[in-house]
Each structure stands twice: as structure tokens, then as C-alpha cells.
Design brief:
Elements (H helix, E strand, L loop, with lengths): L14 E6 L5 H11 L9 H5 L10 H15 L5 E8 L11 H4 L5 E13 L2 E12 L4 E11 L3
Antiparallel strand pairs: 1-3, 2-5, 3-4, 4-5
Amino acid sequence: MAEKIYFEDINIGDTMPAFTSAPITRTHLVRYAGASGDFNPLHHDETFVAMFGMPRVIAHGMFIMGIASNAITLWIDNKCLKNFKVRFSGMTEPADLTDFENTKARATITITGKVVKKFAEGGENRIQCDIQAIDALGSVKLTGSFIAALPSR
């Protein structure tokens, strides 16, 4: 659950708490496909992805965005969010159960963020925070930002 954060306690340059996911597995992809209705074969069919020269299936971009939104709402209450946008930068492969140790690093996503702006708009005190999602090897999976309206003391 998000802690109560006040506008006066946040400064430009402050960082949000880093969040690291558990390794993403094929089971996560199957569950996400069922929940979202996105059954694109890129996310589950090894034969299909091999036709494009890809070594294995990839995670849904929106699944990675969901991990990012979870990281944000662990810090900022979701009712404070006004805007959240991302740009996808790289593919995420799941940890293959037959080669788990070698793919675990690629399949673990860490979300970090930094406050880049404080401002008032529409009678609210707001912050803008830039975020990124990277795997343990440093490969960027998405970049983005969010705006939140924070209460005053």
C-alpha cells in the first residue's frame, strides 16, 4: 500500500523507491493473455516466433507496463495519478524453465523513477516523475512518465 506523501516533502531530483519484479515466466504470459484477451502468437508460440528469427516468445508490452504501474502505486496512491504514459523500448523474454538460471536476469524487471517537475495546475499541487524499466542486464524495456496530484500538509 502506498504511503501518504505530501507535495512539500517531494523535491525535484528525488527518486521513487526502486521495484524489482519476480522473474517473468511463461505462466505469467499465459495468465496475462487470458486476462487481457491478447493471444498474439508472439507471446506463446515458439514455432511462430522462430519464423521471425526470435529465440523465444516475448512478454506483452502491456504486462511490463502493468509492472511499472504497480511500482508507481506502491509509492503514490493510485487515486492521486492524473496521467501515466510509456514508450516501449525493448522486448522481454520470459525465464525458460529448462534454462532458468541463464534467462532469469533478462526476465527480472526493475522500475526506477525520478521527480523532474513540481507545479500547480487546476488548483492541485502536482509532480511529474520520469520512469524506466530495465532488466538485470541493463536493457531498457520501457521509458515513461506519470503526473500525480499530491495533498499539501
